[in-house]
Amino acid sequence: MKNKKSIYDAIILVLVILFMPKVAIAHQVDGGIERQLLSSSALPNLPGHKLTSMIVEFAPGSSAPAHRHDAFLFVYVLSGSVLSQLNQDEAIVYHAGDSWVESPTDIHTQTTNMSETETTKLLVVFIAEERAKLSSSRLKTH
């Protein structure tokens, strides 16, 4: 059931992204993590909010520091495996085809590419207020 739902969610996201207005593709690389903006568009049925999609690639063995996003997120693993932990919940390893969601109040305490030889690639879709910062806020965890 989980795999069918993940596949269904991924198909819906791909269709949404394909029919959204395209924006200039932007790249940002930071500590082995590359972000590529795919598209961003206002949500007419949710005034003052936008949907933004991007590809996030983690170089082999790279990790993101603890952070949170001022947005709701849907994350779909396109390739590779990633260890992800939200708040104080148990860390979970997600593989290609798996997905998870985050809320604006979640603290992403751990995000690590599980491979020392292969890149992990994620499709990340944000729903946020138009002026929200999609880049994460670095947090101290102690």
Task: Describe the 3D structure.
Mean pLDDT is 82; it is low at 17-25. The protein starts with a helix and ends with a strand. It has one helix at 2-19, and strands at 27-30, 33-42, 49-58, 63-64, 67-68, 72-79, 81-86, 92-95, 99-102, 108-113, 120-129, 137-138. The chain has one helix and twelve strands; from the N terminus they run H-E-E-E-E-E-E-E-E-E-E-E-E. It has 142 residues and is mainly beta. 13% of the residues lie in helices and 48% in strands. The strands form three sheets. It has a six-stranded antiparallel beta sheet, with helices on one face. A four-stranded antiparallel beta sheet has the order 4-10-7-8, with no helix packed on it.
* N-end to C-end Cα span: 38 Å
Q: What Rg do the Cα atoms give?
A: 15 Å
Query: In sequence order, what are the helices and strands, one letter per element?
Result: HEEEEEEEEEEEE
Largest sheet composition:
6 strands, antiparallel
State the helix count: 1
Q: Can you give keywords for this protein?
A:
12 strands; mainly beta; 142 residues; four-stranded antiparallel sheet; 1 helix; single chain; six-stranded antiparallel sheet
Give the topology:
Blueprint: H1 2-19, E1 27-30, E2 33-42, E3 49-58, E4 63-64, E5 67-68, E6 72-79, E7 81-86, E8 92-95, E9 99-102, E10 108-113, E11 120-129, E12 137-138
Antiparallel strand pairs: 1-2, 2-3, 3-11, 4-10, 5-12, 6-9, 6-11, 7-8, 7-10
Task: Summarize the entry for a quick read.
This protein is mostly beta strands and 142 residues long. It is built from 1 helix and 12 strands, in the order αββββββββββββ.
